[in-house]
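Students often ask why inverse folding is considered easier than folding. One informal answer: many sequences map to the same fold, so there is more than one right answer. In these notes we will look at a single instance of the problem. The structure comes first.
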């Protein structure tokens, strides 16, 4: 089944999430800015959360269930899917804790750094684990129809946020990845993305205070 499964979207999403994790690290250690104010009011943190939520809910709702049906007689592989879902579930409370801290009038910058470090470790570990174990399983076990369904659900999860999330996804991607992802868009969306969405995204200073998306 591997020839039917193109994981370009998955690798691009993982690359974009890693890019923003690195930016979060830079924000929290910057000596010349208040990291709590940056995260509380900058578009970058909002876009990161929106993209991660769209990606994980699409996997939980459309990817793991398809794999679970296909692997019903393979308990070892089913156990891996349970681990993937558990790793998702462990990340969400850390993000909630960061947002709760950012809502406080005087956020503790040390605690914020500890929470963002925990997020970076947990998410980076999950991305690596998924690439090493779940990606090969997807290639071996998913049908083209199941993969197309997941891709459709993933696009739906982006929904109204697509004008920002699609350029976010392409930010820093190599030429081949960008070409493949843009080629999957309907003609009208391709035109909007290349003519309007990407230029507007480029003009957005995502990690400066007061730029909330």
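Output (designed amino acids):
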């Amino acid at each position: 089944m591997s020839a039917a499964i193109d994981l370009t979207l998955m690798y691009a999403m993982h690359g974009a999430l890693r890019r923003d994790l690195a930016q979060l690290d830079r924000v929290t250690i910057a000596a010349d800015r208040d990291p709590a104010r940056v995260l509380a009011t900058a578009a970058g943190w909002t876009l990161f959360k929106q993209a991660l939520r769209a990606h994980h809910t699409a996997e939980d709702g459309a990817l793991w269930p398809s794999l679970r049906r296909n692997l019903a007689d393979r308990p070892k592989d089913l156990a891996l899917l349970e681990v993937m879902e558990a790793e998702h579930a462990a990340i969400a409370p850390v993000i909630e804790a960061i947002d709760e801290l950012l809502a406080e009038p005087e956020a503790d910058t040390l605690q914020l750094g500890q929470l963002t470090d925990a997020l970076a470790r947990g998410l980076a570990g999950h991305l690596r684990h998924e690439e090493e174990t779940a990606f090969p399983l997807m290639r071996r076990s998913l049908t083209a129809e199941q993969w197309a369904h997941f891709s459709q659900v993933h696009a739906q999860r982006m929904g109204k946020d697509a004008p920002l999330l699609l350029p976010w996804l392409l930010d820093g991607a190599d030429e081949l990845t960008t070409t493949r992802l843009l080629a999957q868009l309907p003609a009208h969306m391709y035109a909007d993305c290349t003519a309007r969405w990407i230029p507007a995204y480029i003009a957005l200073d995502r990690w400066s205070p007061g730029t909330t998306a």
